[in-house]
Amino acid sequence: MSHRSIRFAAIAGVIAIAACAPSWGSLIADGVTYTLLETALSPTEDQFTLEITGINGPADTEGSRYGVNSIAFSETSPAGSVVSGTLAGFTFMTGGLNAMGCDGTGNFYCFKANTKPTAPALPAGSELIFTFDLTVAQAGDFANYDPDFKIQWLGGKSGKYDLVSQTLAPTVVPLPAALPLFLCGIAALGFTRRRRAA
After folding, report:
1. Dihedral pair phi/psi, residue 8, rounded to 5°
2. Which among 117, 168, 170, 176 could bridge 23 via Cys, Cβ 3.0 to 4.6 Å?
């Protein structure tokens, strides 16, 4: 393998890692933290992971949460380009949500729990993770996607829980910590080849 080939392989490896790096967005509402991770699976399909932490913990100003009944995100651009979505235990629907759950209106898509969460409340400091796949009509529809996020909680709190409605603007996650090791390995391979050729 020539030095040029080795350099090309190293550059291609870095580009491949960067292209697959997930994006993320995070927000805190009522003392609960919501983090959204996004990873491309194909030109028209992305996988999202919503991590919810601090549930019923000391910072949670509402508490007594049983679980999530509905989650909604704004559509990608152009409007209506999300053609399907899958989330285990939930039904995919078009439209947003209000305090009663998925309402079928607006430029959103929604996941409604097949079974409403009931008592008891989740343990203090609980974490929930929801992983869902979305398919869009054509490649490029996920570009610059900063989803508006809504969630409907059910629980023992008297009255309705605040309907979170905020934007989760994804930013690129830094490249993996293992990347320097990968690059050093490529460099060492090139150095070894060079010594043998001399």
Report:
1. -65, -40
2. 170
The whole-angstrom separation of Cα 32 and Cα 5 is 49
Check residues 45 and 196 and name the one with the higher pLDDT: 45
Q: Which pLDDT tens digit goes with each residue over 24-69?
A: 788 999 999 999 999 999 999 999 999 999 999 999 999 999 999 9
Which of 79 and 163 is assigned the larger pLDDT?
A: 163
Please name each of the domains of the chain with its CATH number.
Answer: 22-176 (2.60.40.1170)
Cα–chain center distance at 116 = 23
Which of 60, 72, 118, 76 shows the shortest CA–CA distance to 98? 72
DSSP state of 162: P
Question: For residue 17, which phi and psi values (nearest 5 degrees)?
Answer: -65, -45
CB of 134 closer than 8 Å to CB of 46: yes
Q: Which residues pair with 102 in a beta bridge?
A: 97
Task: Check residue 58 and give its pLDDT.
Answer: 98
Q: φ and ψ at 117, to 5 degrees? A: -70, 140
Give me the pLDDT at residue 69, please: 96
Cβ-contact 105, 96 below 8 angstroms: yes
